[in-house]
Write a structure and sequence with these properties.
This protein has 403 residues and is an alpha/beta fold. Helices cover 22% and strands 28% of the residues. A hairpin with a 7-residue loop joins strand 5 and strand 6. The termini are far apart. The structure holds FE2/S2 (inorganic) cluster (FES). The site of FE2/S2 (inorganic) cluster (FES) has 13 residues, from loops.
């Protein structure tokens, strides 16, 4: 073989190698599986997520003898760790309930429920009381089963335990108001073991005594916790001194008799009657407003000596104003008799989405096209610029609303 023939062979071999290598690389590239992008984690904001996130109901547990209060354990479908929440905060659910206006159709209904356990990266828990005429609570009790998927907004709310723990905490729960208190209590016992805690739990009788065994075990295991249970209508089988410590309601007299002298931080959650009597009574007793923290069921319309903050300057109680609901095409006169713009809109047949009805969830947030509103009490949810929360707002001027 001549030198030129040898060179030609070598060049040919190199060329063949290059061609084979290119073909292999091309084939390998073509065979690469094409993965669909994983569903994006909800955008985190302050450890939470924005919008809705899908959760599966992992379990449900009845918490009282009457089976009127049921806990639902919720795990995220994306299996990612859950952000911590502040004990006392709530979850907002958007539920597909039958739409009464469209037979066979569904409408998203928003409701908020307090988290009833300490923060856990694996699950959340809410505990819901069945209300005989409560459409959503009946849906939970009668239809929501393990395996079901529900849509949730991130934990929210300004009602939560304080982190510094300097003063003893007095937790006052009425009925299902025990749910945020249990979350606060368990968190304090774990993270503020030096803090004195007084839990006052008011309910009718032993049949609806939720978390009874758990609370008694906590009180037995933690000497810094004093548990006072009050039955307003004890049954014949309920034992004073064993099942409950006080016959009657949780009122100021009971607090005065039970609490040691000194400064305390008060956290209250319960039905309107309890809140409407106890919050002003504590203020009259001399407890500074900054030491009274509360969450009422339903509209946040407790009497306070002064706005809790967030009221616009120039607010005029009893103001007469002209309101225009743009999308509904309605022009109406506000005479100050309605408690808020949501009540007013609904009373005139204008449908607006709503959830907590107390300024906490943002469901009723509506664009404010003209004018300004004022808030008698600072809402938990901060509306976006140019928007207002109808459930806690009153007009400060004539308004044009997008609803
Ligand atoms: S209904 Fe929840 S903020 Fe108005």
């Amino acid at each position: 073989m001549t030198a030129s023939q040898l060179l030609a062979w070598i060049a040919g071999a190199l060329l063949l190698q290059l061609l084979l290598g290119g073909a292999w690389a091309y084939r390998r590239r073509r065979e690469q599986p094409v993965f669909a992008p994983l569903p994006a984690m909800p955008a985190a904001q302050g450890g939470a997520w924005q919008g809705l996130r899908a959760f599966r109901v992992q379990a449900r547990v009845d918490e009282d003898a009457a089976r009127s209060q049921c806990s639902f354990y919720l795990v995220p479908l994306d299996a990612q760790p859950l952000p911590a929440f502040k004990p006392g905060q709530f979850l907002t659910f958007v539920l597909p309930l039958p739409d009464p206006a469209r037979p066979g159709g569904e409408a998203g209904v928003t409701r908020c429920y307090s988290l009833s356990d300490t923060p856990d990266p694996a699950h959340y828990r809410v505990t819901i009381k069945r209300q005989p005429d409560g459409r959503v609570s009946r849906y939970f009790h009668e239809q929501v089963q393990p395996g079901q998927v529900l849509q949730l907004r991130a934990p929210a709310g300004h009602f939560h335990i304080d982190a510094d723990g300097r003063e003893p905490a007095v937790l006052v729960a009425g009925g299902i108001g025990i749910t945020p208190m249990l979350s606060m209590l368990r968190w304090c016992l774990a993270h503020q073991p030096q803090r004195r805690l007084h839990l006052f739990y008011g309910l009718r009788n032993g049949a609806e005594h939720a978390f009874k065994a758990q609370l008694e075990q906590l009180a037995a295991a933690h000497p810094q916790l004093t548990l006072t249970v009050a039955y307003s209508r004890p049954a014949a089988s309920d034992r004073l001194g064993t099942d409950y410590q006080h016959a009657g309601h949780v009122d100021l007299e009971l607090l005065r008799r039970t609490l040691p002298h000194g400064r305390h931080r008060f956290f209250l959650c319960g039905p309107p009657a309890l809140m409407a009597s106890l919050v002003p009574a504590l203020a009259a007793w001399g407890v500074p407003e900054s030491d009274i923290h509360y969450e009422a069921f339903g509209p946040a319309s407790l009497p306070r000596s002064a706005p809790a903050g967030g009221a616009d300057a120039g607010a005029a109680p009893g103001l007469h104003a002209q309101l225009r609901f743009q999308r509904s095409g309605r022009s109406l006169s506000w005479d100050g008799s309605a408690a808020n713009l949501l009540d007013f809109a609904e009373a005139h047949g204008i449908t607006v989405d709503s959830g907590c009805r107390s300024g906490g969830c943002g469901s009723c947030e509506t664009r404010l096209l003209e004018g300004s509103v004022h808030y008698p009490h600072r809402p938990d949810h901060d509306p976006a610029p140019g928007h207002c929360l109808l459930c806690v707002a009153q007009p400060a001027t004539d308004l044009v609303l997008e609803a």
